[in-house]
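Students often ask why we bother predicting the structure of a whole assembly rather than each chain alone. The short answer is interfaces. A chain on its own may look different once its partners are present, and contacts between molecules only exist in the joint model. In this exercise we take two input lines together and write out one structure for the complete complex. Read the inputs first and try to guess which parts will touch.
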Amino acid sequence: QVQLQESGPGLVKPSGTLSLTCAVSGGSISSSNWWSWVRQPPGKGLEWIGEIYHSGSTNYNPSLKSRVTISVDKSKNQFSLKLSSVTAADTAVYYCARAVNWFDPWGQGTLVTVSS
Amino acid sequence: QSVLTQPPSVSGAPGQRVTISCTGSSSNIGAGYDVHWYQQLPGTAPKLLIYGNSNRPSGVPDRFSGSKSGTSASLAITGLQAEDEADYYCQSYDSSLSAHVVFGGGTKLTVL
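Now the answer. The structure tokens for the assembled complex follow.
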């Protein structure tokens, strides 16, 4: 059974770059799935950030596209998120998830706070 | 403002039936894209509840059901239980200039 686990710094300074990794276990990241990032600001709803296929193909939310990079490391069975020029508005719980049209499973999520 | 519109809150007494609507447009639900539903219990990650408009993953009780018609979809919960109190989100795809993947704003279900 596939499981996902996010990791990365919980605090990022304004104007800095947020970097997170999602480790995939119980299955191969090279399977026929897309791998996604979704975030949830405190007390608010879900926002799709983007997705990557094991080939490296990506799709991004247009509202974040200029600041987002998602990459994949097949040798480590993981994929990563970089979000640049962060502000307080980027404070959120960041989830990684497997995408099959729907999202399942999800990682437990990691809170990233943008503050000096 | 979310591309998919959900009521902010719904409530019901134990044993009752409640429905949560998810209204889209001709560029998402109305274009034929499937709708999926998630349940998010307090302090936890979202969990897939319904996929492909009306299909339940293994382990999801048959008290939960989904439907889709035109530019809208609905989640119905029958025999309401205290443990159903959670936030519920619908999700689909959009072919316009908006996000490739779109979520509803979420609905807080309160069991009275």
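Check your guess against this: Chain B touches chain A at residues 2, 34, 36, 38, 44-48, 51-52, 57, 89, 91, 93, 97-106 (CB under 8 Å).
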